[in-house]
Amino acid sequence: MKITFALNGTVREMDVHPLDRLLDLLRGKAGLTGTKEGCGEGECGACAVLLDGELVNSCMVPAIQVHGRDVLTVEGLGTSKNPDPLQRAFAEEGAVQCGFCIPGMVLASRALLQNVSRPSRKEIRTALSGNLCRCTGYEKIFRAVEKAASWGYGEQCGRELLFFDSSPVFSTEEKEFFFQPCSVEEALATRERFGDEAFFLGGATDFYPDFKNGRILPKRVIDLSRIGMLKEIRRERENLFVGSMATDTAIMKNPSLAAFFPAFVKAAELSGAPAVQNRATLGGNLASASGAADLPVPLLVLGARVLAGNTGGERAVPIEDFFTGYRKTALAKNELLLGVQLPMGDDPVPQAFYKRGSRAALTLSRVSIAASTEMKSGILHSVRIASGSMTAYPSRMPVTEAFLEGKHLSGALIDEAAACASREISPRTSAAFRKAVSGNLVRKFLLSLQDHH
Ligand SMILES: Cc1cc2nc3c(=O)[nH]c(=O)nc-3n(C[C@H](O)[C@H](O)[C@H](O)COP(=O)(O)OP(=O)(O)OC[C@H]3O[C@@H](n4cnc5c(N)ncnc54)[C@H](O)[C@@H]3O)c2cc1C
Ligand code: FES
Ligand code: FES
After folding, report:
1. Does residue 45 lie within any of the structural domains?
2. Do 11 and 138 sit in the same domain of this protein?
């Protein structure tokens, strides 16, 4: 296929395969070797670039999604003779040793500073949490970002993005294999025609590791990235609708979700690091049906319904019935996941999401718990608790819920509920650890209600 995009401010046209990685276009076709390949699986950030001003890992961006967009690599900042201020700050602070991670670090820092011009140390840590450095240690890198911020880098680094709106041109051969619909109807008609032989492509963060290892070799691909309706988050009568192509970042930034469904927003915040969050979608997270996926866990306690569509219409599936087995869902072969409906009451109910793992930007959580309840005069009603990373798919904890329902919140009840939760879960591995942590997280939620009360 032929794509056109802006690369460091210059319009480029390239002949590519639709699933070529942006990383390979940059290093191979454009000869820009500043962008590095480390893990090739979204974990290290060495390949990070800005796509339409947002940080992404270029090892996980397919060429088909680069058409018409604006790419900034480290070569677009400055040269060694004439570095831009952020690069100079890295050099002055001694933040560079072998330099392998630095292009990614610099672009992650720029992505932060263009949004938050005077970030706190915590914000810097979070912004760089997806970038690994094997030699310098992070202290000098953090100091370099602070130095550039103190020079007003954030205020100066804005640049106009170049966009195009024409569609990419597929070769005659590719036309039967790659589809880039602009509407849900078009996507559904294609899926109806080919069934699950036609693979839906979202942000590709789950797709690429499997594609790289040969676990997925899609015969046909339907890229969903141009369907605006699937990216929407909007009020629909008594529900909030979150489209399946809404990214973790879009979920984190939405004020209605923050006000009514903070547990869901927290799960998006704790899903990977910024370069992943900017690409990872709600639909991909649900459709992958991983036992360790984060977003389904709060959805289970918030009464969510999954909207699935085919050429005949739509149906709403309660999230409890959506997962049917390990990596299996209730979606039929001709169905597309359109989004999720979240029922909104007059006021948000107390709720929480907790995740435990070894690294903040970790792919898999080891334990996650979500909980919600309506509390009146110290009595717990409509208690919902769900756990992730324990079994084949995330699920509710009916025994602990029933134990708490209708009871008066007290210190003794909290201890008993924590013990009940530990007994109820049956993790496949690391059982002692997971049981202890789950009990503690249930305790944490109930204690937060007591403090609140
Ligand atoms: C470094 C790294 C860290 C990660 N950290 C986390 C984490 O902390 N927590 C977590 O939960 N996940 C994490 N993930 C996993 C992944 O980012 C999420 O599952 C993400 O939400 C997948 O969305 P996507 O758009 O990238 O999916 P894709 O890779 O595009 O698609 C995944 C699957 O979903 C299907 N699909 C996509 N959209 C639809 C649709 N609308 N209808 C039907 N099927 C569809 C695809 O066909 C495919 O089978 C991480 C991944 C990486 C690489
Ligand atoms: S090479 Fe490690 S995130 Fe892309
Ligand atoms: S400077 Fe060597 S990996 Fe970071």
Report:
1. yes
2. yes
Ligand 3: distance of its center to the CA of 355 in Å?
29
Compute, in angstroms, the gap from residue 42 CA to the centroid of ligand 2.
4
Please state, in angstroms and as integers, the Cα–Cα distance from residue 160 to each residue in 9, 53, 86, 328, following that order: 9, 9, 19, 43
Are residues 353 and 424 in contact, defined by beta-carbon separation less than 8 angstroms?
Answer: no
User: Residue 307: inside a domain, yes or no?
Assistant: no
Most confident of 164-173, 211-220, 279-288, 364-373: 279-288
Dihedral over alpha carbons 104, 109, 111, 112 (to 10 degrees): 150
Determine the structural domain holding residue 220 and report its residue range: 174-227
CB environment 50-68: b (16+ within 10 A), e (fewer): bbeebbbbbbbbbbbbbbb
Q: Which of 371, 357, 365 is nearest to 441 (CA)?
A: 371
pTM of the model: 0.96
Relative to the alpha carbon of 196, which ligand is closest?
Answer: 1
Residue nearest ligand 3's atom 2 by CA? 98
Examine the domain organization and report whether 134 and 208 are in the same domain: no
Residue whose tokens read 């202890």:
436
Tell me which ligand sits closest to the C-alpha of residue 45.
Answer: 2
Domain-embedded: residue 419: yes
Query: Same structural domain for residues 151 and 197?
Result: no
Distance 22 CA to ligand 2 centre (A): 11
Atom 27, ligand 1: which residue's CA is nearest?
284
Ligand 2 pocket residue status of 303, Cβ below 6 Å:
no
Paired tokens of 271: 């899903």
Q: Are residues 125 and 215 in the same domain?
A: no
Ligand 2: which of 59, 207, 276, 277 to mutate, judged by most atoms within 8 Å of the beta carbon? 59
Domain shared by 86 and 192, yes or no: no
Ligand 3 pocket (Cβ < 6 Å) reads 96-102, 133-136
Ligand 2: centre distance to CA 67 (Å): 21
DSSP-based three-state secondary structure for 6: strand
In a domain, 248, yes or no: no
- Examine the domain organization and report whether 150 and 202 are in the same domain: no
pLDDT digit string, tens, across residues 37-76: 999 999 999 999 999 999 999 999 999 999 999 999 999 9
Over residues 334-392, the pLDDT tens digits come to: 999 999 999 998 889 999 999 987 655 555 668 899 999 998 999 999 999 999 988 78
Q: Are residues 11 and 151 in the same domain?
A: yes
Q: Please choose from 43, 51, 128, 278 the residue to mutate so as to test ligand 2's pocket, defined by most ligand atoms within 8 A of CB.
A: 43
How much distance in Å is there from the Cα of 60 to the middle of ligand 2?
A: 8
CATH label of the domain that carries residue 219:
3.30.43.10
